Amino acid sequence: MARLASSSEPRKAYSRNPISRVLSSIFEFFLSIIDAVMLPLQKRIGIRGMAYVFVLPNLLIFAVFILLPMLLNFYYAFTGGTRLFPQDRPFVGTENLERLFECENFLIANSCREDLFWRAIGNTIFFVVTQVGLMILISLITALALNRRIIGRGFFRSIFFYPVLLSPVVVALIWKWILQQDGLLNALLVAFGEEPRRFLLSAGWARFWAVVISVWSQMGFYTLILLAGLQAIPAELYEASDIDGANGWDAFRFVTFPLLMPTMMVVLVLSLIRAVQVFDQVYAFTGGGPGTATQYMVQYIYDTGFANQTSNYGLAAAASMVLAGALLAFTVIQLRLGRSSAISE
Amino acid sequence: MNAIGDYLSRTHGKSRLDISDIFTYLYLSLGTIIMFGPVIWLVMSSFKSSAELSKFPPRFFPYRQETVAVPGYDEPLDLYDVTLEDGTVRQLAQVRRVGIEAQMIDPANPEEIIRVNINQRKPVEEINFSLTNYSNGIQKFNFWIYFGNSVVVTIGATILTLLVNSMAAFALSKYKFRGRDTIFFITIATLMVPLSVILVPVFLVITQIGWNNNLLGVIVPGAATPTGVFLLRQYMLTIPDELIDSARIDGASEWRIYLQIILPLARPALAVLTIFSVMWRWNDFLWPLIVLSRSEYFTLQVGLNSFQGELQVQWDLILSMTVLTLLPITLVFAVLQRYITTGIATTGMK
Question: Does this complex have an ipTM over 0.85?
Answer without folding.
Answer: no
